[in-house]
Amino acid sequence: QVQLVESGGGLVQAGDSLRLSCAASGSIFSINAMGWYRQAPGKERELVAVIISPGKTTYAESMKGRFTISRDNAKNTVSLQMLKLKPEDTAVYYCYYRSGSFEYWGQGTQVTVSS
Question: What residues have CB less than 8 Å from 33, skipping those under 6 apart?
Fold first, then answer.
């Protein structure tokens, strides 16, 4: 079992920055993927960015250049730095962990961007 705890969401204005963090605990394997997905109201959950250990990073095309994902393997944490936020970035952001066939999700953290 893996537990994921997110932090850092909130209400910001368009153009602001925000940093999300996620801490993983439990049975963490060295080869894994950690990252972020988001789900806006009425829409499907979509990829934001994922880091596949040991260091391959994948971003959703629309978020390249504004969002930066990073991870600390020693602390089993993954962070998402979001710049120049837009109202369309409003969503619940979910931390994600996968190792082999096992997937885990955090409870989600709300990010609301006002215009």
Answer: 50, 51, 52, 53, 96, 97, 98, 99
Burial of 77 (0-12, 13-18, 19+ CB in 10 A): middle
Q: Are 49 and 36 in contact (CB under 8 A)?
A: yes
Spell out the residues 6+ positions from residue 92 whose beta carbon is closer than 8 angstroms to its own: 38, 39, 40, 108, 109, 110, 111
Question: In this structure, what DSSP letter does residue 58 have?
Answer: E
pLDDT in tens, 20-72: 999 999 888 777 899 999 999 999 999 999 998 777 999 999 888 999 999 99
